[in-house]
Structures are given as C-alpha cells and as structure tokens.
Design brief:
single chain; mainly beta; three-stranded antiparallel beta sheet; 8 strands
C-alpha cells in the first residue's frame, strides 16, 4: 500500500489483507509496525514443509517449501477488526532472515489490499 497507489484526494486507508515478500530458504519472519503507537500491525512467520504436516513428498509440503500466511482484517467472525491509517501514519517494516543462505536483494516489502476513504 503506497501513497502513489491511492486515488486522488484520499485521506485514509483501511487494509484488509497484507502479505510480506520473503525468499526461501532464508525467510524467518516479517513484521509491520505502527511506528507512532508501537503496535504490531501484522507479524508473519514463514512455515516450511515438515513431517509434522505429513509426508514431505506431499503437494505444498515438499522439503523446504515455504508458505507465507497473510494478515487478514474484516468484520467476519474470527478476523481482527479493520484499522484505518492516514497519510501521516508512520509504518515500519522489519524483516528477520537467516543470512547463512546467501540471497542478494533482501527487502522488507509488503503487498496488500486496502479500501481508500
């Protein structure tokens, strides 16, 4: 969600889904913080294929397969209530990764869907 993506004249944005961009096998965790309040807005742990989910020959559970779950907000049961941010809200992205696995171009990049109001 970037200011450049917002419609002209927008004043606030309400994210409904946010997902970090993370590369295997170095990805561990990514966090999105409201830098003004110190609140963790979204925290995502990478989930790697493992025998606890069944055989590692299974689809989407292959050895070193990485799933990155999104953060979701909504008014439906089980979802966190939506939050709204203004253009003045400072957001901080944190990426935690294992640099044992060389990967050039690590970034704490997020994508998502938001309602602009």
């Amino acid at each position: 969600m970037g200011i450049e993506d917002a419609p002209a004249g927008w004043t606030r944005a309400t994210p409904l889904e946010m997902t970090p961009h993370c590369h295997a096998p170095s990805c561990i965790r990514e966090e999105l913080w409201n830098a003004d309040t110190g609140e963790l807005v979204c925290g995502v742990e990478a989930e790697y294929g493992h025998t606890r989910y069944g055989p590692t020959s299974g689809v989407f559970n292959e050895k070193d397969y990485t799933a990155i779950p999104p953060c979701l907000w909504g008014k439906q049961p089980g979802l966190r209530p939506p939050r709204t941010f203004g253009p003045e809200t400072r957001i901080r992205a944190v990426k935690i990764f294992n640099n044992t696995y060389r990967h050039l171009g690590q970034m704490a990049q997020w994508t998502g869907l938001a309602v602009y109001n």
